Amino acid sequence: MGKESPFRGDIVKGKVALITGGGSGIGFEISTQLGKHGACVAIMGRRKPVLDSAVSTLASLGIPAVGFEGDVRSQDDAKRVVESTFRHFGRLDILINAAAGNFLVSPEDLSPNGFRTVMNIDSVGTFTMCHEALKYLKKGGPGRGSSGGGTILNISATLHYTASWYQIHVSAAKAAVDAVTRNLALEWGTDYDIRVNGIAPGPIGDTPGMSKLVPPEIDSKARDYMPLYRIGETWDIAMAALYLASDAGKFVNGTTLIVDGGLWLSRPRHLPKEAVKQLSRAVEKRSRDAPVGVPKSKL
Ligand code: HXC
Questions:
Q1: How far is the CA of 172 from the centre of ligand 1 (A)?
Q2: Region Disordered: which residues (predicted)?
Q3: Integer Cα distance of 298 and 251 in angstroms
Q4: Is ligand 1 within 6 A of the CB of residue 201?
Q5: For residue 220, how far is its CA from the centre of ligand 1 (angstroms)?
Q6: Ligand 1 and 170: CB distance under 6 A
Q7: What pLDDT, on the 0 to 100 scale, is given for residue 1?
């Protein structure tokens, strides 16, 4: 927080955004930055004290903000919060699905209900919010006149690109979120002019995810093989959200932007760089110098 934005201050001016999980962590920074760039902000969450404190911080920055209690697992809550946002601000342009659930657990210790709980928050919750928001987001929806449709951003992860220890439930849930992003981008992009994208953050400091999933001693060790040698900031994710939610991203639809400094590509270095250079030259030399007819396996 407090870092300067490279974007103009009015890039989402006049827009109304609803952010689930907007009271803390990544969701709160997205709420703050959308607000700082001109949007009115509604945040949805389960914990009233968290919502109240977030709304008062947003208000102190001059951001028109309101909080609505609700659980994305409840279709009634989703419907009520979307309607309340529309009633409060008169329109809805941007839906950000940032609410998520997580804990570390091995598959054999995870009950089917534990698995289902995370699927329900992350995947079903994301779909439910999109489903309930559609009538407000679509082209020609209430308050939209005949202007283009709104936009949706789903916060995902990179866990499921390969596989992740103790994260089978979240990997499955985020894979489903990415599928929802792509399918809605196709269908609602075509039918209603709604752009649907995602963001896959890497490890981000000062978030519930980081404190729940990465003990501090592991955290400092892990930095040794991170491509950019650092963990991200909530600001990094919020800037990606601004790009995708504003007209800067007006031709981007159906993508999930990875914002992790390249971490998902990283592998521990198995040989030092100098050793590779020598080894590689030596192997070439051996193969050049070898008498013709010697089988490769003998080189
Ligand atoms: C094993 C667990 C568990 C644990 C819960 N369960 N915690 N199993 N290890 N540590 C099981 C319970 O035993 C139960 O199954 C089922 O999950 C539901 O648990 P409840 O406590 O009843 O659920 P609930 O109160 O609804 O809480 C949901 C929650 C909780 C997901 C468990 O942690 C939560 O509300 N989290 C929201 C905030 C959050 O996690 N934010 C971090 C997001 S980080 P049984 O069978 O016993 O009934 C993030 C980053 C992703 O998303 C990307 C990472 C890189």
A1: 14
A2: 277-299
A3: 56
A4: no
A5: 25
A6: yes
A7: 47
Report the pLDDT value the prediction gives residue 11, as an integer from 0 to 100.
97
Q: What is the pLDDT of residue 225?
A: 63
For the stretch 138-150, pLDDT in tens is 987 887 777 789 9
pLDDT by residue (tens digit) across 195-223?
Answer: 999 999 999 988 988 888 877 766 666 66
Residue linked to tokens 């969450």: 45
Question: Dihedral of CA 203/207/211/216: which sign?
Answer: positive
Tell me, in angstroms, the distance from the centre of ligand 1 to residue 268's CA: 30
Percent of the chain with pLDDT over 70: 93
Listed residue (97, 91, 130) closest to 30, CA to CA = 97
Reading the block at residue 74, the tokens are: 């409840």
Give the pLDDT band of residue 224 (cuts 50, 70, 90). low
Say whether 43 sits in a helix, a strand or coil. Answer: strand
**With a 6 A CB cut-off, is 101 part of the ligand 1 pocket?**
yes
Q: Which amino acid is at 30?
A: I
> How far is it, in rounded angstroms, from Cα 245 to Cα 253?
10
Task: Return phi, psi of residue 121, to 5°.
Answer: -70, -55
